[in-house]
Each structure stands twice: as structure tokens, then as C-alpha cells.
Design brief:
Layout lengths: L1 H19 L5 H51 L6 H20 L22 H4 L6 H8 L6 H7 L22 H9 L27 H26 L8 H7 L3 H23 L17 H17 L1 E3 L3 E3 L10 H12 L26 H5 L8 H25 L15
Helix pairs in contact: 1-2, 2-3, 2-8, 3-7, 3-11, 7-8, 10-14, 11-12, 12-14
Subcellular location: Cell envelope
Keywords: Signal
Organism: Leptospira montravelensis
Length: 425
């Protein structure tokens, strides 16, 4: 503490001289900048400690939610299920998405979710949340053959049998993860439909058997894919667990580059993935670009992405355990209020499209997007709906402005964020 006090005193004296004497040369300006960075280092450490606590608790909750989902799937695939049981499994998928989506804010920061060097050479994110996917690949390539757990992993982003892909795009050859499971449960959501995908019913499932009839193989696929998702979330939970010796979290907190990596990661998520590819993809009116197009869970996807950023911004998390710590808000100076306002804008989605369990639905107000996301997309090429205008001109620009604000903030910490990985407008 004595060293920090001395450092702040030196910094204050330097600033006083800066304003009371003629302009200094570049070397003195650089010294003042270095002193300012050094003075902020304890605050950065406090933020990284809170970040790591939230990451562990968020992944712990996401894992627990997927365990609960997998338990429902296990029971569901052990018999010929009823329509009510199918609806229940779908509801558990939706509930588990809420905690997982909040973890997306940890992406692109050189952490375990997308750094294969930390997870045995296997990049986990493409095995968990890859999107978009070609449903024809699942139907005509995977389900046409015997279904095994390792086979599903091997088929992810793999080549189609005979070299001919149903959709012609090998990047869409997704066989595992949230969206593959989503397709198995809901099926295709046809354009202009007033409900989520409805082509799949309980009769499409039977006792799980990877080499049985179509219904038995679909059940086996559902079970194996859910077990794979569960195992990957356990890896991530353990990576952030401070009680496990030599886990990633200890390296994260001691790495001098972690703060820069985190700021870059949040900027890339908001300006590239979330507010870029996912949101701008629907501007052409193509329903296939909707992030959760089979279940129509897209509004919840975007809402909980914003919630994940809000967690880190305020340094708080509410789940099975509540965390109150040091937030990014306390480090960004004048940019804090700018980002805070845009996080609020990014959350303007009314979550009211849950047909399987209507108790999940919220009451909407006029400032939120209340209509179905695919219905909203359908207005792009005609008279744009009020909801589409909220999305196109308020929400999506606000998310991208968060990335731009972080680009500006980075200079105050001695590094620069370029446009690599961003889709800024």
C-alpha cells in the first residue's frame, strides 16, 4: 500500500507540473502516461479478480442447467415419449440457454472457450454453439448412418459423404452443440410461420438406439449431443475453478496481458459476433440468418448476451450465487456512461415467444421488441415494422457503439484495438 501511495503522489506531482509549466517533450508525456497506467494497475487487478469469479459462477450455473437438461433428455430418450414430455425437454433447453448465453462475453479473450491450447488442442466453442447450420447435413448425412458419440464430434465441420453437401457450404456442417440439438427438437421453422419449428413431434423419437430406425437414431443423436455439450461445459467450469490446482484461472490473474485480452474480447463480441455477424445477417430479410431460427429463441439470445456484458460492466452476477465486485464501469472514465446507456438499449427485447411454457413469457411494452423475431425479419423488404426499426436503428447500432467505445478506451490503457474481427458500420 505504501508503494501505491508513493506512486499516486508522484503521479499527482507530475500532473501538477504538467499544467503549471511549459509543454513537455514526448518523453515526459510518455512518462506521465506510464505513471497513469501504473496507478490504474491495482484497479485492473480488482476487475480481473471479479471477472474470474463471475466466469466461474456463470459456467458453474451453465453446467448445472445443462446437467438438468441432459437428465430430462435421458429420461425422454429411454422410451416412446409423449407430446407433453417433448415440450418439457424444449423448455429445459430454453432455460439452459439463459445461463450459457451470458458466458459468451468470455469469448475472444484467449481463454478456454476458444483457445485450443488450453483445452487439449480442441477448440470448444465450435463444438458448442456453432452457427449457422445446414439441417440437410444432419438429415441426409448423419441420420442416414449409424449414430455414435464420437461420430457426431468427428462430423462437426466435416466433409459430406461423397463430397456433396446438401447446402453446398462446408462451414455449415454442424453436427453438435446447442443449435444441432435445437434442430433435433423443433425441426425447420418455415418462412412466415407463426410458431417455432413444428415439423418434429414426439412420434419422431423412440428408445435411443444409434443403429435403429429413424426415430431411435434421432433419440440417440439427441442424447449423445447433449452429453457432449455437458462434458464441454464441465471442462470450462473446471478451467475457472480456483480450488483446482493448476487451473486456468490462476494463470489468467497473473498474466500481464489478461486485461488487454479481455477488452479486446468484449469489443470483438459486441462489434463482430453479436452486434456484427448475428445482427447484421438479418438485414437482408433472410430467416435462415436468424440465430436460433428453429426455436425462435433469438430475442433471448440477444438479451442474455447483453446481460453477460452487463454482469462484467457492473461487476455483479445473480445466479445460484450472487457476486458483487469491481466492474469495468469503474475503469473506463468518461466512456462508462456511454456504454451503460447502450447496454440498456441492447436489452430491449421482450421475451414472450415461449410456446412450450408460457410462464416464461414477459409482459411487453412499446419500447421493446414484442413481435416474433422471424415475423419482424419478414418486414425488411416491405414496410418496416416498428419492432424492426427498434432493432435496426436502436439496438444493433448501440451494440456496435459499445465496441467503438472500447476501442477509444483502449488507448487510455496503452494499447490499440483495430478492426480485426469486427464488423463495424
Amino acid at each position: 500500500m505504501r508503494n501505491l501511495t508513493s506512486l499516486v503522489s508522484i503521479l499527482s506531482m507530475g500532473l501538477l507540473l504538467h499544467f503549471c509549466t511549459p509543454k513537455k517533450d514526448n518523453s515526459e508525456t510518455a512518462l506521465l502516461a506510464a505513471l497513469a497506467l501504473a496507478a490504474s494497475a491495482p484497479n485492473q487487478a480488482a476487475f480481473l479478480d471479479t471477472y474470474s469469479q463471475i466466469a466461474f459462477q456463470n459456467y458453474s450455473d451453465a453446467y448445472a442447467d445443462v446437467v438438468a437438461f441432459r437428465e430430462k433428455v435421458t429420461a425422454f430418450t429411454s422410451k416412446a415419449p409423449s407430446a407433453a414430455e417433448l415440450n418439457e425437454v424444449k423448455t429445459y433447453w430454453r432455460k439452459a440457454r439463459r445461463s450459457y448465453l451470458q458466458t459468451e462475453v468470455f469469448r475472444f479473450s484467449k481463454g478456454p472457450i476458444d483457445n485450443p491450447a488450453l483445452t487439449g488442442g480442441v477448440e470448444l466453442e465450435p463444438l458448442m454453439n456453432a452457427w449457422p447450420l445446414d439441417e440437410g447435413y444432419i438429415d441426409t448425412v448423419i441420420l442416414a448412418n449409424a449414430v455414435t458419440k464420437q461420430g457426431l464430434i468427428d462430423a462437426n465441420a466435416g466433409e459430406c459423404n461423397g463430397g456433396t453437401c446438401p447446402d453446398g457450404d462446408t462451414a455449415k456442417n454442424i453436427s453438435v452443440g446447442w443449435h444441432a440439438i435445437e434442430y433435433l427438437l423443433w425441426g425447420v421453422d418455415t418462412a412466415g410461420n407463426s410458431t417455432p419449428g413444428s415439423s418434429i413431434t414426439n412420434t419422431n423419437f423412440a428408445i435411443a438406439n444409434g443403429s435403429g430406425n429413424a426415430a431411435a437414431k434421432r433419440s440417440a443423436y439427441l442424447l449423445y449431443a447433449t452429453e457432449i455439450l455437458e462434458s464441454h461445459l464441465l471442462q470450462l467450469k473446471n478451467a475457472w475453478d480456483p480450488s483446482i490446482s493448476d487451473s486456468y484461472v490462476s494463470k489468467f490473474k497473473s498474466n500481464s496481458n489478461s486485461f488487454e485480452n479481455v477488452i479486446r474480447g468484449i469489443a470483438r463480441l459486441s462489434g463482430g459476433e453479436w452486434g456484427g455477424e448475428r445482427m447484421t445477417g438479418v438485414f437482408g430479410g433472410d430467416q435462415e440468418e436468424e440465430h436460433s431460427c428453429f426455436s425462435d429463441n433469438t430475442k433471448a439470445d440477444f438479451y442474455y448476451d447483453a446481460k453477460g456484458l452487463e454482469n462484467l460492466f457492473y461487476g455483479t452476477y445473480t445466479g445460484t450465487k450472487t457476486i458483487n465486485g469491481y466492474g469495468l464501469k469503474n475503469l473506463l472514465g468518461g466512456e462508462s456512461s456511454y456504454i451503460e446507456e447502450r447496454i440498456t438499449t441492447a436489452e430491449r427485447f421482450c421475451l414472450n415467444e415461449f410456446y412450450e411454457d408460457t410462464s416464461l413469457n414477459q409482459t411487453c411494452n412499446s419500447s421493446q421488441i414484442s413481435s416474433r423475431f422471424d415475423t419482424m425479419i419478414a418486414t425488411v423488404n416491405s414496410t418496416q415494422s416498428a419492432d424492426y426499426r427498434i432493432f435496426r436503428y436502436d439496438i444493433q447500432p448501440a451494440v456496435q457503439e459499445i465496441a467503438k467505445s472500447l476501442q477509444r478506451s483502449a488507448a487510455n490503457f496503452g494499447f490499440s484495438i483495430g478492426d480485426d474481427g469486427l464488423v463495424l458500420q
